[in-house]
Specification:
Length: 520
């Protein structure tokens, strides 16, 4: 029975990959290339250098920190898939009308979740750590114990993800839980940037703060002692399948008893009609949707963490990203440029593509495409600008810069939102995607590639973009006020041109009709 369902699921996933368009295949290959060229070597190098050269007392602390980091991050990555597989995907209902047991169905679902989302990560980490420690202590057996231990961490992460989802769905609807936990999953997706970019600069102080757990790891993961090694190897090898079995029993029992879908409440509200301009009415509609629909936050909020990634890159690598100057003034202005461009482009595109879900309704309304575009423009400005000003103020308190630099940074951020938001709106209106299983998937392959390339370009060029704004006064690097005023003047002109031309082009897209891709 398990094998039969496994074959069906395997064929389903194979059919999905066969149906992929050329553009999406190129995007996946591009992301895989970035992963293999940047992420994998960086993690391997950090683990290898640290574990091979660190004092023995720090190895156990580092392994504890790595374990505490992996469990929540992997659990949050799993949440999205669990919500889709267990609640939003209707194929479970189809399985359960067949002569198969619920346990077999959920066994296959759990198997795929673990195999595709957890196993590659824990195997890679275990090999990087195990092979390094094996070479340090000249004990090949440490590679085996490392694999067994990190497989246990993977099982623990899987168990934590399933338990969290099924516990919280008892007090709220599965859809609402999915929206909230997707937000935390998005935040978790940004965390590795901090860890990878930090390298050894901030890693050592954090490791020093961790408690000494030599009594657990010593003799098993490093400095092997045969008796302790065999004992813990058996314990962790038995604990992993035991955890998975407990989760499987819990999931099966929850579905059979019908407790997993508890908490779906229906709220009725009285409707109130107001008169006003079309732009005002459409703006109010967007604001109301955002306030009551948490997945709007989960789709865009994690992107607001990237300015802090930029902050770390510029402050820790000034020679790479900022040329010869390492002025805090330039750092703040660079973040204002890079962060506001990235966030305005991505968030405006996502907010505009959201209208594909209600496009038929918009077409029936007595409003022009330009009115819809103006309302969306105001909505993007109202939701993006305050958030980015708050981020700029936070970074201002981190850096040592005068208030005038903060004023320049805020002014540049506001003008760049006004300039870039219409471009993001145009990208979002080109070929939006509507997906019931993954509402946050709104942009087509072309838009995703454009935004991804823009982000990578900003990461490598953000320091150089603002070199012309900094001068040396004989003692330190300072901002050129005349140049800053010219930059602000140019941005004012560009924001006006963007509003006149790009906004009208976006309005024309509404009038012409969306080329919508429906999925799921």
């Amino acid at each position: 029975m398990f094998k039969s369902i496994l074959k069906v699921e395997a064929q389903s996933r194979l059919n999905y990959f066969k149906a992929l368009g050329t553009g999406k295949i190129i995007l996946y290959l591009f992301l895989a290339f970035i992963l293999l060229v940047m992420l994998v070597p960086a993690v391997w190098m950090v683990l290898n250098i640290f574990l091979f050269n660190a004092e023995e007392v720090l190895i156990g602390k580092a392994l504890l920190l790595l374990s505490l980091f992996l469990v929540p991050v992997l659990s949050l990555f799993l949440v999205n898939g669990i919500i889709k597989e267990m609640f939003m995907d209707k194929n479970i209902d189809s399985y359960l009308v067949l002569p198969v047991t619920p346990r077999a169905v959920f066994s296959v679902k759990l198997f795929y979740q673990f195999t595709f989302k957890v196993l590659p990560v824990v195997l890679f980490i275990s090999l990087a750590a195990g092979l390094t420690l094996s070479a340090r202590y000249e004990a090949p057996m440490l590679a085996v114990s490392s694999i067994v231990y990190f497989l246990f961490i993977g099982a623990l992460s899987t168990a934590a993800a399933y338990i969290v989802v099924f516990l919280v769905t008892k007090v709220s609807s599965a859809r609402r839980v999915g929206e909230i936990l997707t937000l935390f999953g998005g935040v978790a997706s940004v965390l590795p940037y901090f860890i990878i970019m930090a390298g050894g600069q901030y890693l050592r102080p954090v490791i020093n703060m961790m408690p000494n757990v030599d009594f657990i790891f010593s003799g098993f993961l490093y400095d092997p002692e045969m008796l302790k090694y065999i004992l813990l190897l058996l314990v962790f090898a038995a604990a992993s399948p035991a955890l998975i079995a407990l989760v499987l029993n819990y999931v099966t029992a929850a579905f059979v008893k019908g407790t997993a879908t508890a908490g779906n409440l229906e709220h009725k509200k009285t409707a109130a009609a107001e008169t006003g301009s079309p732009v005002r009415a459409l703006l109010k509609k967007d604001m109301t949707m955002t306030k009551r629909d948490f997945k709007e936050w989960s789709a865009v909020l994690p992107q607001y963490l990237f300015p802090f990634v930029f902050l770390f890159l510029l402050t820790s690598n000034p020679l790479i990203y900022g040329g010869e100057s390492s002025s805090d003034d330039q750092v703040l202005i660079s973040i204002a440029f890079a962060g506001s461009i990235m966030i305005s482009l991505f968030v405006a595109a996502m907010n505009t593509a959201r209208d594909a879900r209600t496009y038929d309704f918009l077409k029936m309304m007595p409003v022009s495409g330009l009115d819809i575009a103006k309302a969306k423009y105001l909505y993007n400005f109202i939701t993006i600008t305050p958030m980015y000003i708050i981020i700029t103020i936070i970074i201002y308190f981190i850096l040592d810069v005068p208030v005038t630099t903060l004023i320049y940074a805020v002014g540049i951020s506001v003008l760049l939102v006004l300039t870039i938001a219409p471009l993001g709106m145009l990208l979002g209106a080109m070929n939006p995607v509507v997906s019931k299983k993954n509402p946050a998937q709104r942009l087509d392959t072309a838009a995703n590639i454009i935004i991804s390339v823009t982000i990578f370009a900003l990461i490598f060029l953000m320091g150089y973009m603002t070199q012309f704004t900094v001068g040396f006064n004989g003692e330190e690097y300072v901002l050129k006020h005349g140049t800053m005023l010219i930059v602000i003047g140019v941005l004012i002109i560009l924001s006006i041109l963007s509003y006149v031309f790009l906004l009208r082009k976006t309005g024309a897209k509404y009038d012409e009709g969306y080329n919508i891709t429906y999925k799921d």
